[in-house]
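Reopening: Copper transport protein still failing for me.
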Amino acid sequence: MDTESAMNMTESVMNMIPYLHFTGGDYLVFKALQPDSAGTLTAASIVLICLALVERLLMAARCSLEARWSKRLSNSEVASNSHQPSLLKVQEYSEVSETASLHTVPPFTPTHEILRGFIYALRILILYVLMMAVMTFQAAYLISIVIGSGLGEMIFGRFSAIKHSH
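Support: Ran it again with your exact input. Result attached.
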């Protein structure tokens, strides 16, 4: 590390305010993003609200997809098992199936797993960006993230509740 970069890092650390504040000038994720006026601070807050909304949307989308995949899997199991010749075998199978289904893992379906992984990675990226915004101690950012998360839960929360209702 050369002297110039060490001085630049020292200056940026000295400019950080270590308590909640509403003053501008904090870096937001990148060095190029440094809202310092009321207008740019408002725009950054709106972007953070939208990011928090998108995070809740992705969570709802994942839960809805998993509910759809689970329903499709259970429908295919019922259809494949509907060809049992006798009632006794059906009763025996349903008893075994009930206990077995409590301990089974859904089959590996590459398209489902890739999509699940992509959604998860995107959510984590957004959550880390939001965390970095909160770590600036800029109160407007914190309030924006809380508002965006609350709005997102109000709008999309019922979709993520589908997963937990079964």
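Residues 38-80 form the longest helix (43 residues). If you still see a failure, please send the error message rather than a screenshot.
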